[in-house]
Amino acid sequence: MENLRQKQLTQWLMDFFLLEKCVLTSMNGDAGFRRYFRFQKDEQSFIAVDSPVDKCNNSAFLSVQKQLTQVGVKVPEVLACDEQQGFMCLSDLGNCELSTVLTLDNMAKYYQQAILLLPKIASISQQNLPVYDKAFVQLELDIFSKWLLHKHLDIQLTHEQETQLQTCFDFLISNALEQPQVVMHRDFHSRNLMLVDNELAVIDFQDAVIGPITYDVVSLLRDCYVKWPREQVMPLLDYFVGKMSSQFSLQHINAQQWQQWFDLMGLQRHIKASGIFARLYHRDGKPGYLSDIPLTLSYIVDISAQYPECYFLESLVTNTVMPKLSQKMAEAAV
Fold first, then answer.
1. 89 phi and psi, to 5 degrees?
2. Are 135 and 259 in contact (CB under 8 A)?
3. pLDDT digits (tens, 9 = 90+) for 213-225
4. How far apart are CA 236 and CA 240, in angstroms?
């Protein structure tokens, strides 16, 4: 099927651009169902996208792309699109992911640039966007139980443990729902930010929803793929709070409240991410993300230990999940 789709995509590009020949070079794919290819036309590089209509929300991608362009966020330009087949041609933003250039010395500068994009993203139209409501958050948290605990580690919780875990989840759901609700990118981190002529561009924005104001900033500052020292993260959180408070008239919210929103939003995201990394392996045949699970678990332990409502989660991950994961990783390495 993939070879057929690639042939169909190639033919579509040849027909659209009146090309006699079109050679697609596969790019490193993301965690989703889209496939990306580079091709050349008139000595210029472009991106071809195979985005199956039964698995990808292409209309959302096109709508959000247009709105982000209008508010001055640099995103790939849509040069051609066939929504019926699920094919797109985009401008090429190059190969320089922000993640590849970050160091302890320059991260504050680049992250401030990224944070300046968040008020713009948060302010685009909420029309037709999904709402990150209670059921949505619960669905994401359940990925942790289903795919990491049960499927990957074969951990079976007792009824009492399941109740305690759900109590933690309820606390996190309340935290998400009580925050100011804005448009959020939902995967705003250094692998989805491209450095183009010293300017940041945003990709992978098709899953935008209406949700908690701290979601995108915690995705950035408590990245699932890199962990920065707290003393460098906190000033950047303050920078974010200043910008968003000004944009949305939130000066009445105190620093302690922002901190709790940020902490618990990150905890929720890392719970979900650790489950998704396991799901990518077992369901989608993508083992590369298994190595990212220990970092997400370290975030979970750090933050859940700071909130009494999450002590059970800290104990579960520390005493059961991490030892079982270490054992499984050791067995796989033999």
1. -125, 125
2. no
3. 999 999 999 999 9
4. 6
